[in-house]
Amino acid sequence: MLPSSFSRKLRLIIREEEKHDNLFARLSLTTVSNLHLLARRRSSSSNCDSVLSKKSNSNDERHKEQCERNPNESSEDSWMIPDEEENNKFISFLPLSIVLGENVTIYASYNGGSCEQDDVIELPRSMVVGLEGIPHNLPEFVSVHALSYVKHGTRVLVEPATVEDWELLEIYSDFVERGRLLSQVSVIYQNQNLTLRIKVGDGIDRVQVQVTEVTGSSLVTNCAKEDSTRPLSCVLLIQDTEVIVSPKVRPQKKVIPWSSPLRLIPSDVDWGTSCAALSRLTNVEAIYVEPGCIFVHCDQWPFEIQWAQIKLENTTLNLMRVVRVMTSSKIPPNDAGM
Questions:
Q1: Basic and acidic residues compositional bias: what residue ranges (predicted)?
Q2: Who's near 47: CB < 8 A, 6+ residues apart?
């Protein structure tokens, strides 16, 4: 975890789903500016410390003091866009590291969406609900710092949560192929769970995917010079990022073979007076079979499915019928009651 001097403690506000929502964080302009400045100071401090670790003299001390006084002079900032009307620059993008609890860190990005309150971060509900390692009730405050650089993603591998999610992605394949993912998320990291919203006419379909693998390039987007050889935490999704979706096909239905021929025995509705009298004399109970069902011995049907086809043997008639299978130990093996 970063020292508190480089991070901000912000109140967490959960954003409920909106019609045209995305997975971007919202911050006030003041908070964005403060986080951006802290990231540049952190980078400048890191660079100065790196120089001092090699040499320790008065010139280096002066260089360190200059870095601390003028953190904005360390490099060109690719996250700031010039405002031609006001002849200044505004921050259009900021990658964020958000600590929600002990050992629980997620990554998000500010992409220009602002909220009115200062010292507040607004996140969509789908980004934080269901995360492992945090209590049922989300924390009131979170620790947030802006990343001083983020590598461009070269390849991202995602896996649909369910077969239904995979089938939706197949139907709306252009959502991924034409880069529409960029309109909803910018920062990607491993094991990230994403809820993607796909507009269909006047409605919305939702697709759940998990990021299983990310690969970053040597190219970086940064707000200050930084050691880009550090371990990869997240990547920036760009137009050239290859997004691969792992298929999740439905398992093939198990084919249940035809059973050996069963001898059909009468049920109680088929019995005449003589069979009823024989039943009383032998203490053998009559078996009631509901219409559209077949009774077989428990060992004859070890399957979970409750429906089967029946057909007649040794006949030229090609008659088959779907019936519900019921089991009972009272039915003799190799017999069936209908």
A1: 57-71
A2: 67, 74, 224, 225, 226
Structure confidence by residue, pLDDT tens digits, 163-173:
888 988 888 88
**pLDDT confidence band for 9 (50 / 70 / 90):** very high
**pLDDT tens for residues 97-130?**
999 877 788 999 998 888 888 899 999 888 887 6
Distance (Å) of CA 60 to CA 20, 41, 53: 52, 17, 10
Residue 5 has pLDDT above 60, yes or no: yes
Residues 6+ apart with CB under 8 A from 40: 71, 72, 74, 77, 148, 223, 224
Number of C-beta neighbours around residue 326 at 10 A: 15
218 vs 227: CA distance, rounded Å: 11
Which amino acid would we find at residue 334?
N
The span from the CA of 184 to the CA of 199, in Å, is 12
What is the CA 45 to chain-centroid distance, rounded? 36
pTM: predicted TM-score of the whole model, two decimal places: 0.63
Strands 120-124 and 8-15 turn out to be parallel
- The shares of helix, strand and coil residues in the chain, as percent rounded to the nearest 5, are 25, 35, 40
Comparing CA positions, the residue from 78, 76, 77, 50 lying closest to residue 64 is: 50
Secondary structure letter of residue 4 according to DSSP: G
Q: Is the pLDDT of residue 300 over 70?
A: yes
In tens, the pLDDT along 11-32 reads 999 888 766 678 899 999 999 9
How confident is the prediction for the chain on average, in pLDDT?
76
Token readout for 68 is 């601390």
CA 67, 68, 74: angle at the middle one, nearest 5? Answer: 35
Kindly give the interhelix angle for 58-69 and 29-54, rounded to the nearest 10 degrees: 170
* Rounded-to-integer distance, Cα 123 and Cα 27, Å: 9
Q: Can you read off the two tokens belonging to residue 51?
A: 């120089």
